[in-house]
Design a protein that fits this description.
The structure holds two protein chains of two kinds. Chain A is mainly α. Chain A has two domains: 1-52; 58-295, Orthogonal Bundle (MetI-like fold), CATH 1.10.3720. In chain A, 77% of the residues lie in helices and 1% in strands. Chain A has helices at 6-53, 58-62, 75-106, 110-125, 128-142, 149-174, 177-185, 190-219, 222-225, 247-256, 262-295; strands at residues 65-66, 71-72. In chain A, strands 1-2 form a two-stranded antiparallel ribbon. The radius of gyration of chain A is 26 Å and the shape is globular. Chain B is of the alpha/beta class. In chain B, α6 packs parallel to α7. Chain B is globular, with a radius of gyration of 18 Å. Chain B has helices spanning 45-52, 82-88, 103-113, 119-133, 137-140, 153-165, 183-196, 209-215, 233-238, 243-249; strands at 5-16, 19-30, 34-38, 62-70, 73-74, 89-92, 171-175, 201-205, 218-223, 226-232. In chain B, the strands form two sheets. In chain B, strands 6-7-8-3-9-10 form a six-stranded mixed β-sheet, sandwiched between helices. In chain B, strands 2-1-4-5 form a four-stranded antiparallel β-sheet, covered by helices on one side. Chain B has ten helices and ten strands. Classes of the chains: A mainly alpha, B alpha/beta.
Chain lengths: 298, 254
Protein backbone atom coordinates (compact mmCIF):
# COMPACT_ATOMS: atom_id res chain seq x y z
CA UNK A 1 0.00 0.00 0.00
CA UNK A 2 1.22 3.44 -0.89
CA UNK A 3 1.38 5.77 2.06
CA UNK A 4 -0.40 9.07 1.81
CA UNK A 5 1.76 12.13 2.00
CA UNK A 6 0.72 15.20 3.89
CA UNK A 7 0.30 16.96 0.58
CA UNK A 8 -2.33 14.45 -0.60
CA UNK A 9 -4.32 14.98 2.57
CA UNK A 10 -4.22 18.72 2.05
CA UNK A 11 -5.46 18.39 -1.51
CA UNK A 12 -8.43 16.24 -0.47
CA UNK A 13 -9.18 18.68 2.31
CA UNK A 14 -9.40 21.55 -0.18
CA UNK A 15 -11.68 19.70 -2.58
CA UNK A 16 -14.03 18.52 0.15
CA UNK A 17 -16.07 21.70 0.14
CA UNK A 18 -16.56 21.55 -3.62
CA UNK A 19 -17.59 17.90 -3.37
CA UNK A 20 -20.19 18.67 -0.75
CA UNK A 21 -21.44 21.49 -2.98
CA UNK A 22 -21.83 19.10 -5.90
CA UNK A 23 -23.70 16.68 -3.66
CA UNK A 24 -26.09 19.37 -2.47
CA UNK A 25 -26.78 20.46 -6.06
CA UNK A 26 -27.38 16.85 -7.08
CA UNK A 27 -29.83 16.26 -4.26
CA UNK A 28 -31.75 19.42 -5.16
CA UNK A 29 -32.17 18.27 -8.76
CA UNK A 30 -33.30 14.84 -7.57
CA UNK A 31 -35.83 16.39 -5.22
CA UNK A 32 -37.19 18.70 -7.92
CA UNK A 33 -37.74 15.74 -10.22
CA UNK A 34 -39.62 13.83 -7.54
CA UNK A 35 -41.70 16.93 -6.85
CA UNK A 36 -42.60 17.27 -10.54
CA UNK A 37 -43.72 13.65 -10.69
CA UNK A 38 -45.81 13.91 -7.52
CA UNK A 39 -47.36 17.20 -8.63
CA UNK A 40 -48.29 15.82 -12.03
CA UNK A 41 -49.88 12.78 -10.42
CA UNK A 42 -51.66 14.86 -7.78
CA UNK A 43 -52.99 17.39 -10.26
CA UNK A 44 -54.18 14.69 -12.62
CA UNK A 45 -56.06 12.74 -9.97
CA UNK A 46 -57.32 15.91 -8.28
CA UNK A 47 -58.59 17.30 -11.56
CA UNK A 48 -60.47 14.14 -12.49
CA UNK A 49 -61.91 13.77 -9.01
CA UNK A 50 -63.03 17.42 -8.88
CA UNK A 51 -64.62 17.42 -12.28
CA UNK A 52 -66.12 13.95 -12.06
CA UNK A 53 -67.13 13.60 -8.44
CA UNK A 54 -70.41 15.50 -8.89
CA UNK A 55 -72.00 13.00 -11.25
CA UNK A 56 -70.84 9.76 -9.67
CA UNK A 57 -73.53 8.21 -7.53
CA UNK A 58 -75.28 4.87 -7.20
CA UNK A 59 -77.50 5.45 -10.20
CA UNK A 60 -74.54 6.51 -12.31
CA UNK A 61 -72.85 3.20 -11.60
CA UNK A 62 -75.85 0.94 -12.02
CA UNK A 63 -78.24 2.46 -14.54
CA UNK A 64 -78.44 2.39 -18.32
CA UNK A 65 -77.71 5.61 -20.19
CA UNK A 66 -80.83 7.66 -20.85
CA UNK A 67 -82.00 10.47 -23.04
CA UNK A 68 -79.26 10.38 -25.67
CA UNK A 69 -76.49 9.72 -23.12
CA UNK A 70 -76.92 12.98 -21.28
CA UNK A 71 -78.68 11.34 -18.36
CA UNK A 72 -78.66 8.01 -16.55
CA UNK A 73 -75.71 5.81 -15.79
CA UNK A 74 -72.79 4.09 -17.40
CA UNK A 75 -73.46 0.54 -16.24
CA UNK A 76 -73.12 -1.00 -19.72
CA UNK A 77 -69.69 0.59 -20.11
CA UNK A 78 -68.54 -0.72 -16.71
CA UNK A 79 -69.83 -4.17 -17.56
CA UNK A 80 -68.29 -3.98 -21.04
CA UNK A 81 -64.87 -3.07 -19.71
CA UNK A 82 -65.14 -5.87 -17.18
CA UNK A 83 -66.09 -8.40 -19.86
CA UNK A 84 -63.40 -7.24 -22.27
CA UNK A 85 -60.75 -7.48 -19.54
CA UNK A 86 -61.91 -10.94 -18.51
CA UNK A 87 -61.97 -12.07 -22.11
CA UNK A 88 -58.45 -10.75 -22.62
CA UNK A 89 -57.38 -12.59 -19.48
CA UNK A 90 -59.02 -15.82 -20.57
CA UNK A 91 -56.91 -15.74 -23.71
CA UNK A 92 -53.66 -14.29 -22.38
CA UNK A 93 -53.40 -16.19 -19.09
CA UNK A 94 -53.02 -19.77 -20.33
CA UNK A 95 -51.19 -18.77 -23.51
CA UNK A 96 -48.81 -16.48 -21.65
CA UNK A 97 -48.05 -18.83 -18.76
CA UNK A 98 -47.45 -21.81 -21.00
CA UNK A 99 -45.21 -19.76 -23.26
CA UNK A 100 -43.23 -18.65 -20.22
CA UNK A 101 -43.00 -22.27 -19.05
CA UNK A 102 -41.63 -23.26 -22.39
CA UNK A 103 -39.16 -20.39 -22.50
CA UNK A 104 -37.80 -21.00 -19.01
CA UNK A 105 -37.93 -24.77 -18.75
CA UNK A 106 -38.23 -26.54 -22.03
CA UNK A 107 -36.57 -24.60 -24.79
CA UNK A 108 -33.20 -26.22 -25.44
CA UNK A 109 -31.74 -23.81 -27.98
CA UNK A 110 -30.67 -20.57 -26.34
CA UNK A 111 -30.45 -18.85 -29.70
CA UNK A 112 -34.03 -19.72 -30.56
CA UNK A 113 -35.20 -18.49 -27.14
CA UNK A 114 -33.40 -15.22 -27.73
CA UNK A 115 -35.13 -14.73 -31.06
CA UNK A 116 -38.52 -15.46 -29.49
CA UNK A 117 -37.79 -13.00 -26.67
CA UNK A 118 -36.91 -10.28 -29.15
CA UNK A 119 -40.21 -11.01 -30.88
CA UNK A 120 -42.15 -10.77 -27.62
CA UNK A 121 -40.44 -7.55 -26.62
CA UNK A 122 -41.15 -6.07 -30.03
CA UNK A 123 -44.79 -7.00 -29.58
CA UNK A 124 -44.75 -5.00 -26.36
CA UNK A 125 -43.50 -1.97 -28.26
CA UNK A 126 -46.15 -2.00 -30.99
CA UNK A 127 -48.47 1.03 -30.68
CA UNK A 128 -51.90 -0.03 -29.50
CA UNK A 129 -53.70 1.43 -32.52
CA UNK A 130 -51.73 -1.02 -34.66
CA UNK A 131 -53.14 -3.85 -32.55
CA UNK A 132 -56.57 -2.38 -33.24
CA UNK A 133 -55.92 -2.34 -36.96
CA UNK A 134 -54.66 -5.90 -36.87
CA UNK A 135 -57.74 -6.95 -34.89
CA UNK A 136 -59.98 -5.31 -37.46
CA UNK A 137 -58.29 -7.07 -40.34
CA UNK A 138 -57.82 -10.46 -38.70
CA UNK A 139 -60.55 -11.10 -36.11
CA UNK A 140 -63.31 -8.82 -37.37
CA UNK A 141 -62.89 -9.37 -41.10
CA UNK A 142 -60.86 -12.48 -41.81
CA UNK A 143 -62.18 -14.66 -38.96
CA UNK A 144 -65.57 -13.01 -39.38
CA UNK A 145 -66.09 -12.45 -35.66
CA UNK A 146 -67.36 -9.00 -36.55
CA UNK A 147 -66.88 -6.03 -34.22
CA UNK A 148 -67.67 -7.88 -31.00
CA UNK A 149 -66.77 -8.70 -27.44
CA UNK A 150 -64.82 -11.67 -28.80
CA UNK A 151 -62.72 -9.64 -31.27
CA UNK A 152 -62.08 -6.89 -28.74
CA UNK A 153 -61.07 -9.35 -26.02
CA UNK A 154 -58.69 -11.19 -28.32
CA UNK A 155 -56.98 -7.98 -29.41
CA UNK A 156 -56.59 -6.87 -25.79
CA UNK A 157 -55.37 -10.37 -24.95
CA UNK A 158 -52.62 -10.13 -27.55
CA UNK A 159 -51.80 -6.64 -26.33
CA UNK A 160 -51.13 -7.82 -22.77
CA UNK A 161 -49.47 -11.08 -23.80
CA UNK A 162 -45.90 -9.71 -23.55
CA UNK A 163 -46.53 -8.48 -19.99
CA UNK A 164 -48.10 -11.77 -18.98
CA UNK A 165 -45.22 -13.76 -20.48
CA UNK A 166 -42.64 -11.45 -18.93
CA UNK A 167 -44.03 -11.50 -15.43
CA UNK A 168 -44.68 -15.24 -15.58
CA UNK A 169 -41.10 -15.88 -16.67
CA UNK A 170 -39.83 -13.72 -13.86
CA UNK A 171 -42.01 -15.54 -11.33
CA UNK A 172 -40.98 -18.97 -12.62
CA UNK A 173 -37.32 -18.06 -12.39
CA UNK A 174 -37.57 -17.00 -8.75
CA UNK A 175 -38.37 -20.58 -7.72
CA UNK A 176 -35.07 -21.90 -6.38
CA UNK A 177 -33.23 -24.29 -8.64
CA UNK A 178 -32.78 -26.52 -5.59
CA UNK A 179 -36.51 -27.41 -5.60
CA UNK A 180 -36.32 -28.40 -9.21
CA UNK A 181 -33.23 -30.53 -8.68
CA UNK A 182 -34.76 -32.22 -5.65
CA UNK A 183 -37.86 -33.10 -7.62
CA UNK A 184 -35.93 -34.45 -10.60
CA UNK A 185 -33.61 -36.42 -8.30
CA UNK A 186 -36.65 -38.26 -6.94
CA UNK A 187 -37.55 -39.52 -10.38
CA UNK A 188 -40.08 -36.87 -11.32
CA UNK A 189 -40.38 -35.95 -14.97
CA UNK A 190 -39.78 -32.38 -16.05
CA UNK A 191 -43.53 -31.89 -16.48
CA UNK A 192 -44.31 -33.22 -13.01
CA UNK A 193 -41.61 -30.97 -11.60
CA UNK A 194 -43.17 -28.06 -13.42
CA UNK A 195 -46.75 -28.47 -12.27
CA UNK A 196 -46.14 -29.92 -8.81
CA UNK A 197 -43.23 -27.79 -7.66
CA UNK A 198 -42.42 -24.84 -9.87
CA UNK A 199 -45.88 -23.56 -10.84
CA UNK A 200 -47.45 -23.75 -7.36
CA UNK A 201 -44.53 -21.75 -5.99
CA UNK A 202 -44.66 -19.05 -8.60
CA UNK A 203 -48.40 -18.64 -8.89
CA UNK A 204 -48.62 -15.53 -6.73
CA UNK A 205 -45.95 -13.77 -8.78
CA UNK A 206 -47.72 -14.72 -11.97
CA UNK A 207 -51.06 -13.48 -10.67
CA UNK A 208 -49.56 -10.16 -9.65
CA UNK A 209 -48.18 -9.56 -13.12
CA UNK A 210 -51.37 -10.67 -14.76
CA UNK A 211 -53.56 -8.40 -12.65
CA UNK A 212 -51.37 -5.42 -13.52
CA UNK A 213 -51.77 -6.21 -17.19
CA UNK A 214 -55.54 -6.47 -16.77
CA UNK A 215 -55.45 -2.91 -15.46
CA UNK A 216 -53.69 -1.95 -18.64
CA UNK A 217 -56.24 -3.76 -20.80
CA UNK A 218 -59.14 -2.09 -19.00
CA UNK A 219 -57.81 1.36 -19.85
CA UNK A 220 -57.00 0.85 -23.53
CA UNK A 221 -59.11 2.58 -26.17
CA UNK A 222 -57.35 2.22 -29.49
CA UNK A 223 -57.37 -1.59 -29.73
CA UNK A 224 -61.13 -1.82 -29.18
CA UNK A 225 -62.05 1.25 -31.23
CA UNK A 226 -62.43 -0.77 -34.40
CA UNK A 227 -62.92 -4.24 -33.02
CA UNK A 228 -65.88 -4.22 -30.70
CA UNK A 229 -66.50 -1.06 -28.74
CA UNK A 230 -69.61 0.89 -29.48
CA UNK A 231 -70.82 4.28 -28.40
CA UNK A 232 -74.29 3.30 -27.38
CA UNK A 233 -76.26 0.14 -26.80
CA UNK A 234 -79.83 -0.04 -25.71
CA UNK A 235 -79.34 -3.52 -24.25
CA UNK A 236 -76.59 -5.24 -22.38
CA UNK A 237 -74.38 -7.56 -24.45
CA UNK A 238 -75.91 -11.04 -24.65
CA UNK A 239 -73.29 -13.06 -26.50
CA UNK A 240 -69.62 -12.99 -27.30
CA UNK A 241 -70.59 -11.65 -30.71
CA UNK A 242 -72.36 -8.60 -29.25
CA UNK A 243 -70.76 -5.23 -29.48
CA UNK A 244 -69.96 -3.76 -26.09
CA UNK A 245 -69.67 -0.36 -24.50
CA UNK A 246 -66.43 0.30 -22.66
CA UNK A 247 -65.30 2.99 -20.23
CA UNK A 248 -62.34 4.46 -22.13
CA UNK A 249 -64.19 4.54 -25.42
CA UNK A 250 -67.21 6.02 -23.69
CA UNK A 251 -65.09 8.97 -22.54
CA UNK A 252 -63.70 9.45 -26.02
CA UNK A 253 -67.13 9.32 -27.63
CA UNK A 254 -68.72 11.69 -25.12
CA UNK A 255 -66.04 14.29 -25.74
CA UNK A 256 -65.90 14.04 -29.51
CA UNK A 257 -69.50 13.55 -30.55
CA UNK A 258 -72.63 15.49 -29.74
CA UNK A 259 -72.75 18.94 -28.28
CA UNK A 260 -74.67 18.74 -24.99
CA UNK A 261 -72.66 20.29 -22.21
CA UNK A 262 -73.81 17.58 -19.78
CA UNK A 263 -71.65 15.21 -21.77
CA UNK A 264 -68.46 16.73 -20.38
CA UNK A 265 -69.52 16.10 -16.80
CA UNK A 266 -70.49 12.52 -17.60
CA UNK A 267 -67.17 12.03 -19.37
CA UNK A 268 -65.28 13.15 -16.27
CA UNK A 269 -67.47 10.94 -14.13
CA UNK A 270 -66.64 8.03 -16.39
CA UNK A 271 -62.95 8.90 -16.22
CA UNK A 272 -63.15 8.90 -12.43
CA UNK A 273 -64.77 5.47 -12.45
CA UNK A 274 -62.10 4.14 -14.81
CA UNK A 275 -59.34 5.63 -12.70
CA UNK A 276 -60.76 4.11 -9.54
CA UNK A 277 -61.12 0.77 -11.28
CA UNK A 278 -57.50 0.74 -12.41
CA UNK A 279 -56.28 1.87 -8.98
CA UNK A 280 -58.37 -0.87 -7.38
CA UNK A 281 -56.95 -3.48 -9.74
CA UNK A 282 -53.38 -2.36 -9.07
CA UNK A 283 -53.98 -2.30 -5.33
CA UNK A 284 -55.21 -5.87 -5.52
CA UNK A 285 -51.98 -6.82 -7.28
CA UNK A 286 -49.88 -5.06 -4.67
CA UNK A 287 -51.84 -6.72 -1.87
CA UNK A 288 -51.35 -10.17 -3.34
CA UNK A 289 -47.65 -9.53 -3.83
CA UNK A 290 -47.15 -8.40 -0.25
CA UNK A 291 -49.05 -11.36 1.10
CA UNK A 292 -47.13 -13.81 -1.05
CA UNK A 293 -43.82 -12.30 0.01
CA UNK A 294 -44.74 -12.72 3.67
CA UNK A 295 -45.85 -16.29 3.18
CA UNK A 296 -42.73 -17.25 1.28
CA UNK A 297 -40.23 -19.13 3.35
CA UNK A 298 -37.25 -19.73 1.17
CA UNK B 1 -17.64 -58.57 -13.72
CA UNK B 2 -17.19 -58.51 -9.99
CA UNK B 3 -20.49 -59.11 -8.25
CA UNK B 4 -19.82 -56.61 -5.53
CA UNK B 5 -19.23 -53.64 -7.82
CA UNK B 6 -22.21 -51.32 -8.16
CA UNK B 7 -20.77 -48.50 -10.22
CA UNK B 8 -17.93 -49.02 -12.60
CA UNK B 9 -16.42 -46.05 -14.39
CA UNK B 10 -13.86 -46.24 -17.17
CA UNK B 11 -12.22 -43.42 -19.06
CA UNK B 12 -15.01 -41.05 -18.16
CA UNK B 13 -14.61 -37.51 -19.47
CA UNK B 14 -16.90 -34.53 -19.03
CA UNK B 15 -16.98 -31.02 -20.37
CA UNK B 16 -18.85 -27.82 -19.56
CA UNK B 17 -18.65 -26.17 -22.95
CA UNK B 18 -14.92 -25.89 -23.58
CA UNK B 19 -13.94 -26.63 -20.01
CA UNK B 20 -12.66 -30.16 -19.57
CA UNK B 21 -14.04 -30.89 -16.09
CA UNK B 22 -13.32 -34.61 -15.75
CA UNK B 23 -10.39 -36.36 -17.37
CA UNK B 24 -10.19 -40.11 -17.87
CA UNK B 25 -11.78 -40.96 -14.56
CA UNK B 26 -11.54 -44.64 -13.65
CA UNK B 27 -13.21 -45.81 -10.46
CA UNK B 28 -15.13 -48.77 -9.11
CA UNK B 29 -17.63 -48.22 -6.36
CA UNK B 30 -18.53 -51.32 -4.37
CA UNK B 31 -22.00 -52.22 -3.19
CA UNK B 32 -22.97 -51.32 0.37
CA UNK B 33 -19.93 -49.21 0.90
CA UNK B 34 -19.37 -45.54 1.51
CA UNK B 35 -17.06 -43.88 -0.95
CA UNK B 36 -15.88 -40.34 -0.30
CA UNK B 37 -14.72 -37.87 -2.92
CA UNK B 38 -12.30 -35.28 -1.67
CA UNK B 39 -10.23 -32.59 -3.31
CA UNK B 40 -9.87 -28.82 -3.64
CA UNK B 41 -12.70 -26.64 -4.97
CA UNK B 42 -13.25 -27.04 -8.68
CA UNK B 43 -11.46 -30.37 -8.82
CA UNK B 44 -14.39 -32.14 -10.41
CA UNK B 45 -15.66 -34.15 -7.44
CA UNK B 46 -19.14 -32.60 -7.53
CA UNK B 47 -19.25 -32.85 -11.32
CA UNK B 48 -18.46 -36.53 -10.98
CA UNK B 49 -21.18 -37.03 -8.37
CA UNK B 50 -23.77 -35.20 -10.45
CA UNK B 51 -22.81 -37.28 -13.46
CA UNK B 52 -24.00 -40.42 -11.71
CA UNK B 53 -27.66 -39.34 -11.72
CA UNK B 54 -27.22 -37.20 -14.82
CA UNK B 55 -28.08 -34.03 -12.95
CA UNK B 56 -25.53 -32.28 -15.12
CA UNK B 57 -27.81 -32.79 -18.10
CA UNK B 58 -29.62 -29.67 -16.87
CA UNK B 59 -26.54 -27.59 -17.58
CA UNK B 60 -26.30 -26.28 -21.09
CA UNK B 61 -23.11 -27.31 -22.82
CA UNK B 62 -22.48 -30.36 -20.62
CA UNK B 63 -20.98 -33.30 -22.49
CA UNK B 64 -19.92 -36.70 -21.25
CA UNK B 65 -17.84 -39.44 -22.80
CA UNK B 66 -16.57 -42.81 -21.71
CA UNK B 67 -18.33 -45.48 -19.75
CA UNK B 68 -20.15 -45.27 -16.47
CA UNK B 69 -21.90 -48.50 -15.59
CA UNK B 70 -24.53 -48.87 -12.88
CA UNK B 71 -25.12 -52.61 -12.41
CA UNK B 72 -23.69 -53.26 -15.86
CA UNK B 73 -25.89 -50.73 -17.63
CA UNK B 74 -24.30 -47.63 -19.06
CA UNK B 75 -25.83 -44.54 -17.46
CA UNK B 76 -25.06 -42.55 -20.59
CA UNK B 77 -26.47 -45.10 -23.01
CA UNK B 78 -28.95 -43.61 -25.47
CA UNK B 79 -31.62 -46.08 -24.39
CA UNK B 80 -31.36 -45.28 -20.70
CA UNK B 81 -34.42 -43.67 -19.18
CA UNK B 82 -33.11 -40.74 -17.14
CA UNK B 83 -36.24 -40.51 -15.01
CA UNK B 84 -35.91 -44.17 -14.05
CA UNK B 85 -32.19 -43.75 -13.41
CA UNK B 86 -32.79 -40.85 -11.03
CA UNK B 87 -35.49 -42.80 -9.29
CA UNK B 88 -32.85 -45.44 -8.52
CA UNK B 89 -30.05 -43.04 -7.67
CA UNK B 90 -31.13 -40.73 -4.87
CA UNK B 91 -29.46 -37.46 -4.06
CA UNK B 92 -28.92 -35.30 -1.00
CA UNK B 93 -27.81 -31.79 -1.73
CA UNK B 94 -25.34 -29.40 -0.19
CA UNK B 95 -27.98 -27.11 1.27
CA UNK B 96 -31.04 -28.76 2.77
CA UNK B 97 -33.74 -28.25 0.14
CA UNK B 98 -37.08 -29.46 1.45
CA UNK B 99 -40.04 -28.52 -0.71
CA UNK B 100 -42.26 -25.72 0.59
CA UNK B 101 -44.76 -28.33 1.75
CA UNK B 102 -45.53 -30.09 5.00
CA UNK B 103 -43.12 -32.60 6.48
CA UNK B 104 -45.33 -35.51 5.45
CA UNK B 105 -45.84 -34.15 1.94
CA UNK B 106 -42.11 -33.75 1.50
CA UNK B 107 -41.60 -37.45 2.12
CA UNK B 108 -44.65 -38.66 0.23
CA UNK B 109 -43.76 -36.63 -2.85
CA UNK B 110 -41.53 -39.40 -4.20
CA UNK B 111 -44.14 -42.02 -3.39
CA UNK B 112 -46.82 -40.07 -5.22
CA UNK B 113 -44.63 -39.34 -8.24
CA UNK B 114 -43.56 -42.96 -8.56
CA UNK B 115 -47.00 -44.33 -7.60
CA UNK B 116 -45.45 -46.43 -4.88
CA UNK B 117 -48.26 -46.74 -2.36
CA UNK B 118 -51.54 -48.54 -1.92
CA UNK B 119 -53.89 -46.23 -0.09
CA UNK B 120 -53.34 -43.55 2.48
CA UNK B 121 -52.50 -45.93 5.30
CA UNK B 122 -49.71 -47.55 3.33
CA UNK B 123 -48.39 -44.15 2.39
CA UNK B 124 -48.25 -42.96 5.99
CA UNK B 125 -46.56 -46.19 6.98
CA UNK B 126 -43.85 -45.69 4.40
CA UNK B 127 -43.42 -42.06 5.44
CA UNK B 128 -43.01 -43.17 9.03
CA UNK B 129 -40.56 -45.89 8.11
CA UNK B 130 -38.27 -43.59 6.18
CA UNK B 131 -38.43 -40.93 8.89
CA UNK B 132 -37.41 -43.59 11.42
CA UNK B 133 -34.54 -44.63 9.16
CA UNK B 134 -33.40 -41.05 8.90
CA UNK B 135 -33.54 -40.73 12.69
CA UNK B 136 -36.09 -37.95 12.53
CA UNK B 137 -39.33 -39.69 13.49
CA UNK B 138 -39.20 -39.02 17.23
CA UNK B 139 -38.61 -35.32 16.61
CA UNK B 140 -41.37 -34.76 14.06
CA UNK B 141 -44.03 -37.40 14.63
CA UNK B 142 -46.46 -34.87 16.11
CA UNK B 143 -45.71 -32.19 13.51
CA UNK B 144 -46.13 -34.07 10.25
CA UNK B 145 -48.53 -31.42 8.96
CA UNK B 146 -46.27 -28.53 9.78
CA UNK B 147 -44.18 -26.82 7.16
CA UNK B 148 -40.79 -28.39 6.61
CA UNK B 149 -39.27 -24.93 6.93
CA UNK B 150 -40.06 -24.91 10.64
CA UNK B 151 -37.36 -27.54 11.19
CA UNK B 152 -33.76 -26.69 12.00
CA UNK B 153 -31.12 -26.98 9.28
CA UNK B 154 -29.93 -30.35 10.53
CA UNK B 155 -33.48 -31.67 10.78
CA UNK B 156 -34.23 -30.39 7.29
CA UNK B 157 -31.23 -32.28 5.95
CA UNK B 158 -32.36 -35.48 7.64
CA UNK B 159 -35.80 -34.84 6.17
CA UNK B 160 -34.17 -34.63 2.75
CA UNK B 161 -32.41 -37.91 3.44
CA UNK B 162 -35.73 -39.48 4.45
CA UNK B 163 -37.26 -38.08 1.28
CA UNK B 164 -34.55 -39.79 -0.76
CA UNK B 165 -34.88 -43.07 1.19
CA UNK B 166 -38.62 -43.46 0.89
CA UNK B 167 -38.47 -44.47 -2.76
CA UNK B 168 -35.83 -47.11 -2.02
CA UNK B 169 -33.02 -46.13 -4.35
CA UNK B 170 -29.99 -48.37 -4.88
CA UNK B 171 -27.43 -45.63 -4.63
CA UNK B 172 -27.46 -42.42 -2.62
CA UNK B 173 -25.36 -39.50 -3.73
CA UNK B 174 -24.50 -36.89 -1.14
CA UNK B 175 -23.08 -33.57 -2.22
CA UNK B 176 -21.39 -32.09 0.87
CA UNK B 177 -24.46 -32.92 2.96
CA UNK B 178 -23.15 -31.31 6.13
CA UNK B 179 -21.50 -28.24 4.63
CA UNK B 180 -24.13 -25.90 6.03
CA UNK B 181 -24.70 -27.66 9.36
CA UNK B 182 -23.39 -27.27 12.89
CA UNK B 183 -21.13 -29.95 14.44
CA UNK B 184 -23.91 -31.74 16.35
CA UNK B 185 -26.14 -32.01 13.30
CA UNK B 186 -23.11 -33.12 11.31
CA UNK B 187 -22.36 -35.88 13.79
CA UNK B 188 -25.96 -37.13 13.58
CA UNK B 189 -25.84 -37.27 9.82
CA UNK B 190 -22.50 -39.04 9.82
CA UNK B 191 -23.92 -41.68 12.18
CA UNK B 192 -26.90 -42.02 9.92
CA UNK B 193 -24.71 -42.54 6.85
CA UNK B 194 -22.94 -45.40 8.62
CA UNK B 195 -26.26 -47.11 9.28
CA UNK B 196 -27.53 -46.56 5.76
CA UNK B 197 -24.65 -48.37 4.10
CA UNK B 198 -26.17 -51.68 5.19
CA UNK B 199 -28.82 -51.16 2.54
CA UNK B 200 -27.45 -48.58 0.16
CA UNK B 201 -24.36 -47.73 -1.76
CA UNK B 202 -23.32 -44.24 -0.77
CA UNK B 203 -21.13 -41.78 -2.63
CA UNK B 204 -20.34 -38.68 -0.64
CA UNK B 205 -18.54 -35.54 -1.71
CA UNK B 206 -16.97 -33.67 1.15
CA UNK B 207 -14.75 -30.71 1.76
CA UNK B 208 -14.03 -31.95 5.20
CA UNK B 209 -11.20 -34.47 5.23
CA UNK B 210 -11.92 -35.61 8.77
CA UNK B 211 -15.40 -36.44 7.62
CA UNK B 212 -14.06 -38.62 4.83
CA UNK B 213 -11.72 -40.30 7.30
CA UNK B 214 -14.59 -40.88 9.75
CA UNK B 215 -17.29 -42.21 7.46
CA UNK B 216 -15.83 -43.57 4.23
CA UNK B 217 -14.64 -47.07 3.45
CA UNK B 218 -12.85 -45.80 0.41
CA UNK B 219 -11.73 -42.37 -0.61
CA UNK B 220 -10.96 -40.85 -3.98
CA UNK B 221 -8.77 -37.79 -4.18
CA UNK B 222 -9.61 -35.53 -7.13
CA UNK B 223 -7.45 -32.82 -8.54
CA UNK B 224 -7.89 -30.77 -11.71
CA UNK B 225 -10.51 -33.16 -13.00
CA UNK B 226 -8.50 -36.32 -12.44
CA UNK B 227 -8.50 -38.97 -9.76
CA UNK B 228 -5.04 -38.77 -8.25
CA UNK B 229 -5.50 -41.62 -5.84
CA UNK B 230 -8.27 -44.00 -4.86
CA UNK B 231 -8.23 -46.64 -2.20
CA UNK B 232 -9.00 -47.68 1.35
CA UNK B 233 -9.66 -44.65 3.48
CA UNK B 234 -7.47 -45.89 6.32
CA UNK B 235 -4.53 -46.36 4.02
CA UNK B 236 -5.07 -43.09 2.23
CA UNK B 237 -5.03 -41.14 5.44
CA UNK B 238 -2.03 -42.93 6.92
CA UNK B 239 0.16 -44.01 4.02
CA UNK B 240 -0.94 -42.39 0.79
CA UNK B 241 0.85 -43.56 -2.35
CA UNK B 242 1.44 -40.12 -3.72
CA UNK B 243 3.18 -37.13 -2.25
CA UNK B 244 0.51 -34.73 -3.49
CA UNK B 245 -2.23 -36.69 -1.72
CA UNK B 246 -0.30 -36.49 1.49
CA UNK B 247 0.20 -32.75 1.00
CA UNK B 248 -3.51 -32.22 0.53
CA UNK B 249 -4.56 -34.44 3.38
CA UNK B 250 -2.16 -32.84 5.79
CA UNK B 251 -3.43 -29.43 4.81
CA UNK B 252 -0.41 -28.16 2.95
CA UNK B 253 -2.74 -26.82 0.23
CA UNK B 254 -6.42 -26.93 -0.51
Amino acid sequence: MVEKTAQDLDASEKTLKARYGAQAAGFIIVKICVLIVLTALGVLIGFIVMKGFGVVNFEFLTAMPKNGMIEGGIFPAILGTFLLSMGALLFALPTGILTAVWLTEYATSKKFVRIIRIGINSLAGVPSIVFGLFGLAFFVKFMQFGPSLLSGSLVLGILILPTVIGSSEEALLTVPRAFKEASLSLGATRWETMYKVILPNSVSGIITGVILSVGRAAGETAPILMTGATFYMARLPDSIFSKVMALPYHIYALMTEGSHKEQTAIAYGTALVLLMLVIAINSAAIYIRIRARRARKW
Amino acid sequence: MDESIRISVKKFNAWYGEKHALKDVDIEIPRNRIVAMIGPSGCGKSTFLRSINRMNDLIEGFKAQGSMLLDDRDIYDKDIDVTKLRRNVGMVFQKPNPFPMTIAENISYGLRINRMFKGKKDMLLQVEKSLIEAGLWEEVKDDLDKSAFELSGGQQQRLCIARALVIRPQVILMDEPTASLDPISTAKIEELIQVLKKEYTIVIVTHNMQQAARVADRTAFFMLGEIVEYGDTAKMFTKPDKKITEDYITGRFG
